[in-house]
Specification:
By secondary structure, this protein is of the alpha/beta class. 38% of the residues lie in helices and 22% in strands.
């Protein structure tokens, strides 16, 4: 998986498949070839980039099976996007058995050209008893091990391994660890069926995050059966990359109309609160008077438009850094979703903060009491502890050093009842606080190496270039008010910071490449500061602690050892010329 941008625990990523690149996060609508309410071509016209179909349904139908084998899945469905296939696990959950072995269904999915396929795992609901759960987990592990033995025969397809265990966390742990060890290229998390049906979003979030804690972070995570657009942003923010559901069609059959603020009954509508092609060309009354099949088809198209549009909104929020703001707004869709958000932040805040970007392009909005628990808020509040000097009081962060008045997130937080801070920080307060906040308390000791001088913007009066005597040690970035060290500044910081604080250490064989400006890839890394987060300014050094470059991270340090050949630090300044 290649990460292009991130916010919260979400990854705007690309997953290469033999059917093309799958962008994440994404929603894969279920297409049932036996009940084709909307065709794959119509899905593509709506904006669907990937869909999921059930390989077991195709396998059981002789006509469909023969066509899939002879034509291939993409040609049979007339869909040139990415196709994921389910193994029949839902049928196994629903009916207790399927008429195919795990090995048969694995080979079949590969043979028909599935881009992303799944083993025959054993989904569970929230009321399964302990003895039954133990049996089902053993079956899932057995089937995962069977896939491992067959994996050489089915290369080219990406395979999903889904840990099971229901609400029994020791069983989930056992299953997740085994799935992680076996080398699946994609992970699945099974939604807890009856809990999902009863709007128990906390059980779903708890299960997702618990399973995720045992999985390698370089693989995408598919959350099975999550289909309401109002919930997408929440589950994306806590780590889900893709979803699948037939909800768009099931809701349409029940004459329910999806919005990101909830679901409405068609019978109650006098005007459509939407401008998709279905809604802009018709009135609710016209739909009510249509033939039932056509009415269902149009409602399904609208519902799918809403799902696709929400995924686009989420991807925009990740790019621009306002995903948590979106999550908080969507959480008002249902009291149980808001409860799930608050409890998730309380219980899993530390885990979520491991992946939280250090800085963002958008302000943090106070949208309710859960704002206090946001990982970005909590991370910032922890980092300011112990910074000396004058301060100002805030509702979300407590006492903030005055020198951070204009720095992210303190200067970019909107809290309605908070008064404007009238005091202005002195130059030394600004630089000292920024150095301590970004690199550690010892970092401000570099100020003893010369006389501090700040150049300010002629338009805004805000500080820009930072000098010690005649040496430019860095600049203060306009968009977030944070300090970006120059090479001279980095050399001073290395003198005062304990090893490996603020640093990424590269292996000796990559020393010259990095010194000439090559991106630091994950496999270049020997060691580093364990507290480093995405989008953080860092100093890149050799194993003997010589400054090679400065740059900005893409991953957390805790993720680096799992990613192979992934960019980790984008180099800003480097000590040698690019040309040898």
């Amino acid at each position: 998986m290649r990460i292009r941008a991130r916010d919260a625990s979400a990854r705007l990523g690309e997953v290469p498949t033999r059917g093309g690149l799958l962008r994440t996060p994404n929603f894969l609508p279920v297409y049932n070839p036996n009940k084709p309410l909307i065709s794959p071509q119509e899905m593509k016209d709506v904006g669907v980039e990937a869909l999921i179909t059930n390989s077991y349904i195709i396998y059981k139908n002789p006509s469909l099976r023969d066509r899939a084998i002879s034509e291939g899945l993409h040609r049979m469905l007339a869909f040139d996007g990415v196709i994921m296939t389910d193994s029949g696990a839902y049928q196994l959950y629903r009916y207790g058995e399927v008429e195919a072995s795990n090995e048969d269904i694995i080979r079949f999915q590969h043979r028909i050209g599935s881009d992303i396929a799944s083993i025959l795992d054993t989904p569970m609901d929230s009321v399964v008893d302990r003895k039954r759960a133990e049996i089902l987990v053993s079956i899932t592990i057995k089937h995962a091990e069977e896939w491992k033995r067959l994996s050489g025969e089915v290369e080219g397809t990406l395979w999903i391994g889904t840990p099971q265990g229901g609400l029994y966390k020791d069983l989930v742990r056992r299953s997740a660890k085994k799935i992680s060890e076996l080398g699946f290229q994609y992970y699945g998390v099974g939604s807890i069926k009856r809990a999902l049906e009863s709007y128990d979003f906390w059980t779903q979030a708890d299960h997702l995050l618990f399973v995720r804690s045992f999985l390698q972070p370089d693989r995408p995570i598919h959350f099975w059966g999550i289909g309401h657009p109002a919930t997408f942003s929440f589950f994306v923010a806590i780590g889900a990359d893709t979803f699948d559901s037939a909800s768009y069609a099931l809701y349409a059959k029940d004459e329910r109309y999806m919005t990101t603020d909830g679901t409405l009954k068609l019978s109650d509508l006098e005007e459509f609160p939407c401008s998709c092609p279905v809604c802009i060309r018709r009135t609710p009354q016209e739909l009510k008077e249509m033939d039932r099949n056509e009415r269902m088809r149009l409602l399904a198209l609208h519902n799918l438009y809403v799902c696709v549009k929400e995924m686009r909104t989420i991807r925009s929020a990740i790019r621009e850094g306002w995903l948590w703001n979106l999550v908080q707004r969507r959480a008002r869709f249902h009291p149980y979703l808001l409860h799930a958000l608050r409890k998730t932040l309380e219980v899993y805040g530390r885990l979520l903060s491991e992946y939280e970007p250090f800085t963002k392009r958008r302000a943090i909005m106070y949208l309710g009491e859960e704002s206090r628990l946001r990982p970005d808020v909590q991370l910032a509040a922890r980092r300011i502890k112990g910074i000396d000097g004058r301060s100002f009081r805030t509702e979300l962060y407590g006492d903030v050093p005055l020198g951070l008045k204009y720095a992210f997130p303190f200067g970019q937080t909107v809290y309605l009842e908070e008064l404007e801070v009238s005091q202005e920080p002195k130059d030394e307060e600004i630089v000292s606080a920024l150095l301590q906040y970004q690199f550690g308390k010892e970092a401000s000791e570099i100020l003893r190496f010369g006389e501090l001088r700040l150049n300010r913007s002629g338009k805004t009066g805000m500080p820009r270039d930072v000098f010690l005597s005649d040496v430019r040690i860095g600049f203060i970035r306009p968009e977030d008010g944070l300090f970006v060290p120059s090479l001279d500044g980095a050399r001073l910081l290395v003198k005062v910071l304990p090893f490996p604080k603020g640093r990424i250490i590269v292996k000796e064989r990559f020393r010259n490449a990095v010194a000439r400006g090559t991106t630091v890839f994950s496999h270049f890394v020997e060691d580093g500061d364990p507290d480093i987060r995405p989008y953080q300014e860092v100093i890149v050094v050799s194993v003997d602690d010589q400054v090679l470059a400065t740059g900005k991270t893409i991953l957390s340090f805790s993720e680096v050892r799992f990613f192979r050949g992934h960019p980790f630090v984008r180099i800003r300044h480097h000590v040698l010329s690019r040309v040898e």
